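call fold target=Zinc/iron permease
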Amino acid sequence: MDLLFLIIIFTALGGVLSVLAASFFLWLDDVQRARVLPHGISFATGALLAVAFWGLIPHAFEDVDSDRIQSLSAVIMAGILGFFMLEKLLVWRHCHHNHCEAHGEDAEGHHPAGMLILIGDGIHNFVDGILIAAAFLTDVKLGIVTSLAVAAHEIPQEVGDFAILLQSGYSKGKALYYNILSSLATVVGGILAYFSLEDLHDSLPYFLAMAASSFIYIAVADLIPTLHEKTELKVSVQQVALIAAGVLLICSLHGFAHDIELESLERKHQEGGR
């Protein structure tokens, strides 16, 4: 079977499958979802921070020259500031047209955190597509395993994304539609990598750093302040426990996927040097 066709099929599975597996959260009834949503926000906080600090940032800093470390750090800082300015612009645009003082919703009642999570997730999915393609270009079996590993470690993050989108005012249908659309960036990354993997290899750390900055900003600027709105001891303990659960689950799943992704890139690099 044509290798490009396999890459397209399995990058689609790696991205869309994780979204569909996580979408069960959307089909809870209103009462159950209202009860689960605050817990989902706590879990999403831990998951996003774990993806950023345990997965994306270490991966970005691997195998880079020492003179690039500072530039990658600058990209993370610039990304956080850039997402702050983007969110400010979105809030300002709504307030400018509606003559309000300041709040965090656009003309359709959507909080900017929803758009920011879609942007950051799109970048992350794009990188996943490149990694899946790199695995297929090394070995078909390795490509299949990598795509399944990507889907597995994306599922808990996608559950958190759905929670954030619903919290941001998106309907169930729109949350599913935009998350599937964002997941298609995996296919784009896979196709682009098939034709120009060597050219993209040097740019990968910067994509990873930018994705990490978006997840850090969303967790710290949008989600954690929401958690601080409730100060009861029982709720606070639940929040800490769910943040820890999000961190532990992402770290455990990412460890397996990360090892496979590194192996695929190393093999591809070795074959290219022969």
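return ok
The CA atoms of residues 18 and 155 lie 5 Å apart. Residues 3-272 form one domain.
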